[in-house]
Amino acid sequence: MPVNRNALIRYRTIDRCLQNRRRKWTIDDLIEACNEALYEYEGRRESVSLRTIRLDLSAMRSDKLGYNAPIIVKDKKYYIYEDPEYSITNIPLSTQDLGILKEVSELLRQFKGFSHFAGMSELIHRLEDKVYSEQNHLPAVIDFEKNDLLEGLEWLDVLHKAIVARSTLRIHYQSFKARSGSELIFYPYLLKEYRNRWFVLGMKKEGKEILTFALDRIRSIELQPGEEFRERPGFDPHSWFSPIVGVTRNHDGGLTEVLFRANREHAPYIRTKPIHPSQMVVEESATGTLFSITVIPNFELERELIGFGEGLQVLSPASLVRRFRSRIRLMNHLYQRDVS
Question: How far apart are CA 59 and CA 46, in angstroms?
């Protein structure tokens, strides 16, 4: 029986309530608890109906979900587990369930930094222990790209909540180039992950330009409840990154067609993993493939293209070709030095 996310949140909330035997739980109390849980996880106020909670209690009592929860009503008013040790998290898991949970736990680990998942960490560890013990400690078959030494992950949760609640922030930020940090009033619009590094997109109070800040350069964040949150009229944060590679969008840059030729060895990699969604094949020959992309040039594009080394040549625009010539000369000078 498929169960949606909101229903799972309600089941777990009801389960936690009924395990707390120090309090008597009426159906109105359960409704209020579910409303608060849904607000915490989803960030919006939606009143759960009396009918929904009655259906949830019925589903938990039945074997449709495998719970068979011993829910009883005392004094015709208060809901309680007849077995004080019962919890829906204690249900024995099948082999198929264990396999699914193993994959899910690996996925959830990629989102550490969000309180939504941090609250499940203990449960995930318990599930993993059970999975590995019952599957003879089989090695993982999926290895995700991750960096446990990343800085700034502690800001993910506060920024996520601020974006959902449309809250204004005071941020202390220090870029790599700055000798000291600076404080600014900031309106956050979107969180963005690129190459295992997190960024926040938004606008500061003094100005109208859209800014992108790396989370690992943030030194502190404070909520500013007295400051009204501002939107930028007509701005769509989800389309902001469409014309660029990476996260750096030059405000004075326009869309440019970039032509580059990849040799036979590198062309298949570029074809199967495009540098940008606008990528097209212009021409194919025995020596290689001519590609084009239409983007706003930036640092990340240069780094991506120059990473192919001698296997790729940028042909246009002329300004980008000149930048590559300069960078190649500097690289050549660096490697011409004697290595002691």
Answer: 21
Residues contacting 69, CB < 8 A, separation 6+: 15, 18, 60, 61, 81, 86, 88
Q: Which CATH number fits domain 256-336: 3.30.1380, 2.40.128, 3.30.1370, 2.60.40?
A: 3.30.1370
User: CA-to-CA distance for 136 and 138, rounded, in angstroms?
Assistant: 6
Backbone angles phi, psi at 144, to 5 degrees: -80, 150
The CATH code for residues 5-90 is 1.10.10
> DSSP H helical segments within 20-89, as ranges?
27-42, 50-61
CA–CA distance, 163 with 169 (Å, rounded to integer): 10
Work out the angle at residue 237's Cα, subtended by the Cα atoms of residues 233 and 239, and round it to the nearest 5 degrees. 110
Q: Taking Cα atoms as reference points, which of 219, 212, 221 lies closest to residue 248?
A: 212
- Give the sheet arrangement for strand 197-204, strand by strand: 210-214, 197-204, 182-194, 169-173, 218-223
Instruction: Say how far apart CA 70 and CA 61 lie, in whole Å.
Output: 6
For 58-110, write each residue's pLDDT tens digit. Answer: 989 988 777 888 999 998 899 999 988 888 877 665 556 656 656 666 666 55
In 3D space, the residue among 302, 290, 206, 295 whose CA is nearest the CA of residue 254 turns out to be 295
Q: What H or E segment, with its residue span, contains residue 200?
A: strand 197-204
Query: Of 43, 35, 247, whose CA–CA distance to 163 is shortest?
Result: 43
**Contact present, 210 and 200 (Cβ < 8 Å):** no
Q: Are 200 and 212 in contact (CB under 8 A)?
A: yes
Q: Give the pLDDT score at 137.
A: 47
Q: Which tokens go with 37?
A: 């849980």
- Of 2.60.120, 2.30.30, 1.10.1740, 3.30.1050, which CATH number belongs to 153-239? 2.30.30
**153, 215 Cβ separation under 8 angstroms:** yes
**Global pTM?**
0.59
